[in-house]
Design brief:
It is a single chain. This protein is an alpha/beta fold and 279 residues long. It is built from 9 helices and 8 strands. The longest helix is centred in the last third of the chain and has 20 residues, at 255-274. It is globular, with a radius of gyration of 20 Å. The strands form 2 sheets. It has a 4-stranded parallel sheet. It has a 4-stranded parallel sheet with strand order 6-5-7-8, sandwiched between helices. α3 links the parallel β3 and β4 (87-88). The protein has 2 domains: 4-102, Rossmann fold; 118-274, Rossmann fold, CATH 3.40.50. The N and C termini lie far apart (47 Å).
């Protein structure tokens, strides 16, 4: 049976943990589905939503959301309808049933199910930091990060960063481009764990071609040319080796698996520090 490719957009006005669990449980009931997840936590402004909707239009698929703000929710539903895309609010049915049984209206408060303890606020801070430091932005603040991910374009840096942020890790990421070397701040970091992400050339070319097609751009550029891609990957690998950074091959890993490997590296480093071993 041929595999079906699905773009899945998850929009939440909180951390998105509940939404991710719902989507994961539902997808487990289907076989032969290649899911491309687009995870959008902390969606609380119309400006943020507008940026997301541009990505949704470029990668049409299923939209699942937990947004309690009526205005934001209405914009999302109207735009999805105009695009001909299904938009599902999975908690609505449960909230409606509880409202009837309990005789009261649900409180429209984002993330009210989370205990507001120090760990919760740390996770929110991590998500905000990660969104603000995506794709090489604000290099002067990278020292504040827990993790910095480096890799060539389309090596899963951003989705992995967002997943790690949802686990409470402040994460920045930087694209490695042959023609544009990274800022010098990357090579002087002492606090963050810098991790290199790499992948096979074939997989990278396929992902990039799909990206270009989704943007309705010409698929025959150096961005997807085999020799150029090989040089990019080799350039990044040399950089990782020269700096002594740990490297994770994401070719056959899901975002969750890549994040788990990075968290394990963080734990190993932290344990080494407690034992008096230099990282």
């Amino acid at each position: 049976m041929a595999e079906t490719r699905l773009h899945l957009h998850l929009l939440s006005d909180s951390t998105g943990e509940t939404l991710e669990n719902i989507a994961k449980a539902a997808l487990a009931q289907f076989d032969n589905v290649e899911t491309v997840r687009h995870f959008w936590p902390m969606v609380r402004t119309e400006a943020h939503l507008e940026r997301i909707l541009q990505e949704v239009a470029q990668n049409p698929g299923l939209v699942i959301f937990t947004l309690v703000n009526p205005a934001t929710r209405r914009i999302l539903e109207q735009r999805c309808a105009s695009l001909g895309l299904p938009a599902v609010a999975p908690l609505d049915t449960v909230n409606d049933a509880l409202s009837v049984l309990l005789g009261q209206q649900a409180k429209a408060r984002p993330g009210r199910q989370h205990v507001l303890d120090a760990a919760y606020f740390a996770r929110v801070d991590a998500i905000q930091f990660t969104i603000a430091h995506d794709d090489g932005i604000l290099a002067e603040e990278w020292e504040e990060a827990d993790i910095v991910l480096a890799g060539v374009s389309r090596s899963s840096k951003t989705p992995t960063s967002i997943y790690l942020a949802n686990r409470g890790y402040k994460t920045a990421n930087i694209p490695i481009v042959v023609e544009s070397p990274p800022p010098p701040e990357l090579f002087t970091l002492r606090g963050p764990l810098v991790v290199g992400l790499t992948t096979s050339a074939d997989r990278l070319i396929a992902i990039r071609r799909n990206r270009l097609l989704s943007l309705q751009q010409a698929p025959d550029t150096a961005y997807v040319e085999a020799d150029a891609v090989q040089r990019e990957i080799a350039y990044a690998r040399r950089m990782f080796a020269d700096q002594g950074w740990p490297v994770i091959d994401v070719t056959r890993r899901s975002i969750e698996e890549t994040a788990a490997a990075i968290i394990a590296l963080c734990n190993d480093r932290d344990n080494g520090r407690r034992d008096g071993v230099s990282p």
